[in-house]
Amino acid sequence: MKVLRAQCAGACYGVQRALDAAFKANEGHDQVFTWGALIHNPQVVEELEREGIEVARSMDQLPEGSTVIVRSHGVPPSVMRALEGAGASVVDATCPYVARAQKAAARLAREGCRVIIVGEAGHPEVEGIAAFAAEAGGKADVVGSPGDVPAGLYDPIGVVVQTTQRRENLDAVLEQLKAQGLEPRVMDTICAATAERQASAAQVAAEADAMVVIGGRNSSNTTRLAEICAAAAPRTYHVESAAELDPAWFADCATVGVTAGASTPESQIHAVEQALQEL
């Protein structure tokens, strides 16, 4: 059985930057925490905990003088102020692409736009972007699909996008806004690495008999990769580790494609590839 890896797969710059920041902070400090899960990869979070880097979700968990790493998804401005006010040493590991989306939302709000955030309600990145718009005095609506676009909107409308969204979804939401007679001002904040991974995954899925998508089930970008692959290769399997692979999935397969989400380190991809080659 031939194993094909997507050309663009695995940990992106923002994720690697956050991981490097965490390990570096841990070298010189005894009490290191991440504010929420640093990235959406349970195995990596467990590895960090084994290294002594704990996950904090409330200020009460932070001893005075501790080091706190802000996760790659970013946080609302109020959380950043609270961390600094609690006397913590803050390491901001917000992905630069996420920070760009935060700034874009704030700018649109300051300029009087009602902000539409194309993304997943409840996702920490989206919550942070919405908070930046609110901090700038604006109102923000989270829209997951064209059907979520509120009625009664009026210009000026500004649009920002969760960095891991599919471009097709952004385009569909924009069409819906225009169908309501609106002229949205669009800040295209989709991460370039996300778009590259999605295109690369689709290409491999079109050639493979089955696809394996590696990454946390709580990872939105990995979930989207699985959706994209399933459209071309119905036998698509989303796994978090090589231990989940079932040989029965690949019966009669000549070629299996492999891709991985932006929060998936090389070690996890290699383990899955090796397990597939041994089937």
UniProtKB/TrEMBL annotation:
Q: Which InterPro entries match?
A: LytB/IspH
Q: Which residues bind (2E)-4-hydroxy-3-methylbut-2-enyl diphosphate?
A: 40, 73, 123, 163, 219-221, 263
At which positions is isopentenyl diphosphate bound? 40, 73, 123, 219-221, 263
Tell me what this protein is called: 4-hydroxy-3-methylbut-2-enyl diphosphate reductase
Name the needed cofactors.
[4Fe-4S] cluster
What biological function has been recorded for the protein in this entry?
A: Catalyzes the conversion of 1-hydroxy-2-methyl-2-(E)-butenyl 4-diphosphate (HMBPP) into a mixture of isopentenyl diphosphate (IPP) and dimethylallyl diphosphate (DMAPP). Acts in the terminal step of the DOXP/MEP pathway for isoprenoid precursor biosynthesis.
Q: Any note on cofactor binding?
A: Binds 1 [4Fe-4S] cluster per subunit.
Positions that bind dimethylallyl diphosphate: 40, 73, 123, 219-221, 263
Can you tell me which residues form the catalytic site?
A: 125
Catalyses: dimethylallyl diphosphate + 2 oxidized [2Fe-2S]-[ferredoxin] + H2O = (2E)-4-hydroxy-3-methylbut-2-enyl diphosphate + 2 reduced [2Fe-2S]-[ferredoxin] + 2 H(+); isopentenyl diphosphate + 2 oxidized [2Fe-2S]-[ferredoxin] + H2O = (2E)-4-hydroxy-3-methylbut-2-enyl diphosphate + 2 reduced [2Fe-2S]-[ferredoxin] + 2 H(+)
- Can you tell which superkingdom this protein's organism belongs to? Bacteria
Q: Which GO terms describe its biological process?
A: dimethylallyl diphosphate biosynthetic process; isopentenyl diphosphate biosynthetic process, methylerythritol 4-phosphate pathway; terpenoid biosynthetic process
Binding residues annotated for [4Fe-4S] cluster, in chain numbering = 12, 95, 191
Provide the gene name from the record.
ispH
List the Pfam families hit by this protein, alphabetically: LYTB (PF02401)
Q: Which UniProt keywords apply?
A: 4Fe-4S, Iron, Iron-sulfur, Isoprene biosynthesis, Metal-binding, Oxidoreductase
Keyword 4Fe-4S part of the UniProt annotation: yes
CDD domains recorded: lytB_ispH
* One term of GO molecular function: 4 iron, 4 sulfur cluster binding
Per the record's keyword annotation, is Oxidoreductase included, yes or no?
Answer: yes
Q: Which family does it belong to?
A: Belongs to the IspH family.
Protein's pathway = Isoprenoid biosynthesis; isopentenyl diphosphate biosynthesis via DXP pathway; isopentenyl diphosphate from 1-deoxy-D-xylulose 5-phosphate: step 6/6; Isoprenoid biosynthesis; dimethylallyl diphosphate biosynthesis; dimethylallyl diphosphate from (2E)-4-hydroxy-3-methylbutenyl diphosphate: step 1/1
